[in-house]
Design goal:
8 strands, 23 helices, eight-stranded parallel barrel
Length: 500
């Protein structure tokens, strides 16, 4: 007699096309007018959620595209009435590259929920729970689904046991589900199986796995995770998949067809969506990362997809592509000296910038950006492992690092932002954007008031996209890679390579 395994529920899919896929492959340059024509098809497929917002999309929309990210979110919510919308929230960093006061974070979460976000995937670059708890609490109070996130990485200090304990801690903080965020594509199929199984059994919450295809492990890791009982996995439609993006949606759907975890998604509908996206992708050819489809060197360098694609762009813009592998070799050394932080925003920018400076200048730590110094002072949180005391002293001398939650040292800033912006603010969302990115938001709002780009033009584009059967006209992105002289000057001034 054949004994059949118990039937498991269908594997649910989160589609990343409208956020992480284009952030990883096209430097976050996809415009709202190219997203909206795809929405009716996306909404019919039956995804568990669509990742549409957060990460680098917020400031990139303003900085490079002249778009209001809040307008984008509202437009997508209107065009996707049946599918939950998901965002990536950087804990106390919100959608920025530094810590913000609690009142800014609270207003942001409330407004994100009000404007259409259903699922809040909340993480901290150092896996420091102190930096995640307020965001989780605010999202819960706003009625959102709180997804406590483990940033997966490899080091002597990152073990399955430690990750499972973090899962327990996230549950205690009120998480509705656990996200295993493998931003560099480091998780192997069998590790994915073991870790998902342990999280399911020992934490007892739904688990969602996010990975990248950089190493080539992607689809196999998702299948093994499905066998272990993972509830949801992240994929990208094939036209925007693989390389530094996610595994292809259609491949996984086909692989599981007729199996216990059959997704139930319609392959012809997915294929049609992929063909439409292929045409749209051509409009952004100048922002292609140009990274090989699979690079197993990621297992050595541990560089996440967004960081890798932007590193290529920055080095190329400075005529320094010959330094590419030298920088990649330097990144693990700097990471070890900084206490093995997971390489995810903003720690990836901090480590990556310092590694780039070390290589381009030909002398390690000759220039140390302020953000790197702040990291050694403890203003980003507690690293997973001790930092190199010699490098720390080189960066901050005899200063004593802080030991409290960094945001506890920040004064409330909402009312000050409102006052500074004055009549330029037409809504709470304007105040929130300004509080996060004052240098780029104020000029943006001035242009909007003068009718030179902003709500009026975006509203017209949204209307045309929503009510036209034809694809939106091709729109060239507004700006190319930033050039700021030599690499070291650029990095020393900016500190962070935006969008990694």
């Amino acid at each position: 007699m054949t004994i059949k395994p118990p039937l498991m529920k269908p594997l649910a899919i989160c589609e990343t096309l409208l956020r992480d896929a284009h952030q990883s492959l096209l430097a976050t340059r996809m415009r709202t007018e190219d997203m909206l024509p795809l929405c009716p098809a996306l909404d019919e497929i039956g995804y568990w959620s669509l990742e549409v917002w957060g990460g680098a999309t917020f400031d990139s929309a303003i900085r490079f595209l002249g778009e209001d990210p809040w307008e984008r979110l509202r437009a997508l919510k209107a065009a996707l009435p049946r599918t939950p919308l998901q965002m990536l929230l950087r804990g106390q960093n919100v959608v920025g590259y530094k810590h913000y006061p609690d009142d800014i974070l609270e207003h942001f979460v409330q407004l994100a929920r009000k404007n259409g976000i259903d699922v809040f995937r909340i993480f901290d670059a150092l896996n420091d729970l102190r930096n995640m708890e307020p965001a989780m609490r605010f999202a819960k109070e706003a009625g959102g689904h709180v997804q406590g996130t483990i940033s997966y990485t490899i080091s002597p200090f990152h073990t399955d046991k430690a990750f499972v304990q973090m899962g327990r801690d996230l549950k205690a903080l009120g998480a509705d589900s656990i996200a295993l965020k493998d931003m560099a594509g480091l998780i192997t199929p069998y590790i994915a199986y073991d870790l998902v199984k342990a999280l399911k059994e020992e934490v007892g919450l739904p688990v969602q796995l996010h990975t990248h295809y950089t190493s080539g492990f992607g689809t196999a890791a998702l299948i093994k995770a499905a066998e272990a009982g993972v509830d949801v996995v992240d994929t990208a439609i094939s036209a925007m998949s693989m390389s530094t993006s996610q595994p292809p949606t259609e491949t996984l759907v086909a692989a599981l067809k007729g199996q216990p975890r059959d997704t139930g998604l319609d392959l012809p509908k997915l294929a049609d969506l992929a063909r439409r996206m292929e045409k749209i992708r051509k409009r952004y050819a100048s922002f292609e990362a140009g990274v090989a489809a699979v690079d197993v060197n990621v297992l050595q360098f541990q560089v996440p997809g967004g960081m890798l694609s932007n590193l290529v762009g920055q080095l190329r813009s400075q005529g320094a592509m010959d330094k590419y592998y030298d920088v990649l070799d330097e990144i693990p050394r700097v990471r070890k000296e900084m206490g093995y932080p997971p390489l995810v925003t903003p720690s990836s920018q901090i480590v990556g910038t310092q590694a780039t400076l070390n290589v381009v200048l030909g002398e390690r730590y000759k220039v140390i950006p302020e953000e790197v110094k702040q990291y050694f002072r403890g203003y980003y949180g507690k690293p997973p492992a001790p930092m190199d005391p010699a490098i720390q002293k080189l960066a901050i001398g005899n200063e004593k690092p802080i030991t409290c939650r960094p945001a506890e040292l920040l004064e409330p800033a909402w009312e000050a932002a409102r006052k500074e912006l004055g009549p330029l603010a037409t809504c709470e969302e304007d105040v929130c954007s300004y509080a996060l990115f004052p240098q780029i938001v104020k000029p943006f709002l001035l242009r909007r008031r003068q009718g030179l780009g902003g709500k009026e033009e975006l509203a017209a584009a949204i209307g045309a996209a929503l009510f036209s059967e034809a694809d939106a006209k091709a729109a060239r992105p507004a700006a190319g890679p930033v050039k700021a002289g030599s690499m070291w000057k650029m990095a020393a001034r900016a500190g962070l390579q935006r969008g990694w």
